[in-house]
Amino acid sequence: MAQNKTTEGKGRGRPRAYDPQTALNQALGVFWNTGYSAASLDSIASAAGMNRPSLYAAFGDKHALYIKALDQYWETAHATMQAALNNSDLTLAQALIAFYEGQLAIYFSGDGQPRGCFAIGTATTEAVEDLQIREVLSLRLSQLDADLEARLRKAVASGELPGDVDAESLAVLASSLLHSISIRARAGKSREELSAQARNAVRVICG
Q1: Burial of 68 by CB count in 10 Å (0-12 exposed, 13-18 middle, 19+ buried)?
Q2: What is the pLDDT of residue 16?
Q3: 3-state secondary structure at position 155
Q4: What's the Rg (C-alpha) of the chain?
């Protein structure tokens, strides 16, 4: 709709309309493929179909744009996680397999190029010296642990897991497996191999 579009002039003639959400997704793809430091505003503007002044006006500087892209990625990934973990029709094992498979679908979504997790692949490098990125990354990882812990506690309550299970520690183990899968995907492991590793790990988690 018109209110969701922004126009950008291109010399003479009619202004060209672009969708801010599409532009943000294009910027996210550049960051994902090259990392934060190597991504230039020119390459981002080109991918987004905008000129640099318009890009800056819409999203702020490169750092602000990256934070927006990081939030955008989390919204997508988290929605997929929640759909798997909160599905009451699934057993714990089924929910965890759906959880890992959903993220693998995202990790291998880049035109045949295995990109892994956007946050793990890009934010971990910048978090060493960038406080804001570190805080965002830490918050997202804590949310991931909390979501997994909640599902594991539900499994304990329903009798799927023994009552003496340390759900908090098991949740960290489950999330650590996801981070490992992400890194291995970026390193070139096949989706089939990583899916098999996830399924084997789920059997261990579920006892």
Answers
A1: middle
A2: 47
A3: helix
A4: 20
